[in-house]
Design brief:
By secondary structure, the chain is of the alpha/beta class. The chain folds into 5 domains: 5-148, Beta-Lactamase (2-Layer Sandwich); 165-258, PAS domain (Beta-Lactamase, 2-Layer Sandwich), CATH 3.30.450; 269-447, 3-Layer(aba) Sandwich (Rossmann fold); 451-531, Orthogonal Bundle (Helicase, Ruva Protein, domain 3), CATH 1.10.8.60; 535-591, Arc Repressor Mutant, subunit A (Orthogonal Bundle). The protein contains 22 helices and 21 strands. The strands form 6 sheets. A 5-stranded antiparallel sheet has the order 2-1-5-4-3, sandwiched between helices. It has a 5-stranded antiparallel sheet with strand order 7-6-10-9-8. The chain has a 5-stranded parallel sheet with strand order 12-15-18-11-19. A hairpin with a 4-residue loop joins strand 1 and strand 2. The longest helix has 40 residues, at 124-163. The protein starts with 8 loop residues before the first helix and ends in a 6-residue tail after the last helix. It binds adenosine-5'-triphosphate. Adenosine-5'-triphosphate is lined by residues 279-281, 307, 309-315, 379, 421, 464, 497-498, 501.
Length: 591
């Protein structure tokens, strides 16, 4: 502990003056380094100088004892003193300032006249008593200083800890008045002026007295903070400070919703961390796709990925994002086909509180806002209604969004990657897709060819999928035999890599050795099922085979949706019961 007499210099000077006035003698006080820190009379000039170790002060400091030198120069204590000969003192008292065993300094009283000497010696006992009291006073000042120094140190440590947190933190009293906060809090809410004692409800309007009133357990609030054109979407945790069963206030901490989502994504699945190296394939076609994607990742321009279902469009979009400068921010994906048009609008753009009946309290943050500074992946863009296409076009042109029920536009910085398995050009010709939007999206087009056009990729994909699913299913399958592999190579893979994954997953489940055999594969692969685009027009395909093919196509198309069978049956124009009967009839395995 670094506290010494010099910390309470002002108090020491006052005490020295008091003693001097009361006793009519000169007073000098030295610290534990024998530095004079206070002095009256002729010692005033000598403050700051060091006193000799061999002086009476030095002896008091080293022995912890009090002395009264009645006859300076003759007293045995003066024997060693270097300035003995020039000493003009008439008497001296020196008394150590002690707290337990630690000596902090010495108080000295000096008489420079016979009168002062008599004064000192006549009241010897009272004097020592008074000096001890003064020493005690100094000690209590030192202890108080130590305490406040410790508190200051503790407070600085705590503030440093708080400032180094990645969360914004603020503490308020039970009426909502701010008393402590960290730098991050000021940063995330862009606060400028001093906020001490200000009401949290005025600064952050998403928190109300109702939120904290009588709150005994912790509570979480999801919020959107909007200030000028700045948007911050986050999560606020409110924790009561309870001392002796009474609520004394609350500590609130704030986290960024994006980072929470990102952390969640990172934790729950490795898929979100896709790199180009995770896109498997050796064909020129896939190499070309990767080359274009690499270029796209270094640009801000909109990317349009086309390809049949299951070719890896989303995988590629994630890899582009992760390889781009935006990788530290969110990748938000939305499937435009999976959400009804009315809902899609609020999913994309969000809405303000009270925008319509049933609008949630606090409003809703749209995907565009969520993806701010990151990437928004608009999957199945071909399924977006003409009405929303218009709105999207405006966002792409203006780089700002209008929330439903919102009064002002919000600036956004989002990189768009769109994807579709539809022929957008054809849709444009048919008036189903806005031409202007098509050109806005198609800045950097990347087409992923279907798997059947790059069969050489199948080997490495199969190997990759076996490893992935073996691990996932906790099985020890490591290879596939040539008969099974040949069937896989022959199969047309309308569902592309997703279908290949399903088949291999099925095979691994069925397999009871370390090698997948033909018998482990689903029935659909074992029947003669040839697809030849060149002579497709001449070949007559039995109707049953066509039917089977369309059923498989429909199953694959709707596989990842809820109620997939119902959707497939609807698309095929048959009932669900008929679909199940046909699955049985054609021995189509489907989960
Ligand atoms: N080249 C590849 N390497 C490794 N895995 C792949 C590859 N292509 C696709 N996949 C895998 O296939 C599955 C389907 O991919 P993804 O969902 O990206 O396809 P998609 O084209 O977006 O499909 P849809 O159009 O139906 O949404 C995923 O599990 C993905 O990991």
């Amino acid at each position: 502990m670094m506290v010494g007499l010099s910390f309470i210099k002002e108090d020491i000077e006052n005490i020295a003056n008091v003693i001097s006035t009361v006793l009519n003698v000169d007073v000098t006080i030295v610290d534990d380094n024998l530095i004079r820190i206070a002095g009256t009379g002729q010692y005033k000039e000598k403050v700051g100088e060091r006193v000799s170790e061999k002086s009476a002060f030095g002896v008091s400091l080293s022995t912890g004892k009090s002395f009264i030198i009645e006859n300076p120069r003759q007293d045995h204590i003066c024997n060693l003193c270097e300035i003995k000969e020039s000493c003009n003192e008439f008497a001296e008292v020196s008394s150590p300032i002690k707290i337990e065993d630690k000596i902090y300094g010495v108080i000295g009283l000096i008489a420079f006249s016979i009168e002062q000497k008599n004064n000192l010696l006549e009241n010897k006992t009272k004097l020592m008593d008074f000096l001890n009291k003064m020493a005690d006073l100094i000690c209590s000042k030192i202890l108080a200083e130590m305490k406040s120094y410790q508190l200051k140190l503790e407070a600085t440590r705590l503030q440093m800890l708080l400032n180094n947190m990645d969360k914004g933190v603020v503490s308020i009293d039970k009426f909502g008045n701010i008393n402590k906060w960290n730098e991050k809090f000021v940063q995330i809410f862009k606060l400028k002026s001093n906020i001490e004692n200000k009401s949290i409800f005025k600064i952050l309007d998403f928190i109300t007295l109702e939120d904290i009133k009588n709150l005994k357990k912790h509570k979480v609030i999801s919020f959107n903070f909007n200030k000028e054109s700045y948007i911050f979407s986050g999560i606020c945790n409110i924790n009561p400070i309870i001392v002796d069963e009474t609520i004394k206030g609350y500590v609130l901490y704030f986290t960024d919703k994006l980072s929470t989502i990102k952390d969640f994504n990172k934790i729950t699945t490795g898929e979100y961390n896709v790199r180009f190296s995770n896109i498997i394939g050796i064909s020129d076609a896939i190499k070309n796709v990767k080359r274009k994607a690499d270029i796209a990742s270094k640009s801000f321009s909109t990317v349009l990925i086309t390809g049949e279902s299951g070719t890896g469009k989303e995988l590629l979009a994630r890899a582009i994002h992760n390889n781009s400068e935006r990788s530290k921010n969110s990748f938000i994906a939305i499937n435009c086909a999976a959400i009804p048009d009315t809902l899609l609008e609020s999913e994309l753009f969000g809405y303000e509180e009270g925008a319509f009946t049933g609008a949630k309290k606090g409003g809703k943050i749209g995907k565009f806002e969520l993806a701010n500074k990151g990437t928004l992946f608009l999957d199945e863009i071909g399924d977006m209604s003409i009405h929303l296409q218009g709105k999207l076009l405006r966002v792409l042109q203006e780089r700002e969004i209008d929330k439903v029920g919102g009064s002002k536009a919000i600036q956004i910085d989002v990189r768009i990657i769109a994807a579709t398995n539809k022929d957008l050009e054809k849709m444009v010709k048919n008036g189903e897709f806005r031409e202007d939007l098509y050109y806005r999206l198609n800045v950097l087009p990347i087409k992923i060819p279907p798997l059947r056009e790059r069969k050489e990729d199948i080997y490495s994909l199969v190997e990759h999928i076996i490893t992935k699913y073996s691990k996932k299913l906790n099985k020890h399958v490591s290879s596939i035999d040539s008969q099974a592999m040949n069937k896989i190579l022959e199969y047309p893979w309308y569902g592309n890599v997703r279908e290949l994954e399903n088949v291999i997953e099925y095979g691994i489940n069925m397999c009871n050795t370390d090698t997948i055999k033909l018998t482990d594969l689903p029935e659909k692969l074992k029947c003669e099922y040839k697809y030849n685009e060149d002579n497709y027009e001449d070949t007559i395909t039995p109707l049953s085979e066509l039917e089977k093919k369309e059923i498989i196509k429909a199953l694959n198309k709707f596989k990842k949706f809820k109620k997939d069978k119902e959707k497939a049956a609807h698309a095929l124009g048959i009932s669900r019961a008929t679909l199940y009967r046909k699955l049985k009839e054609y021995k189509i395995v489907s989960d």
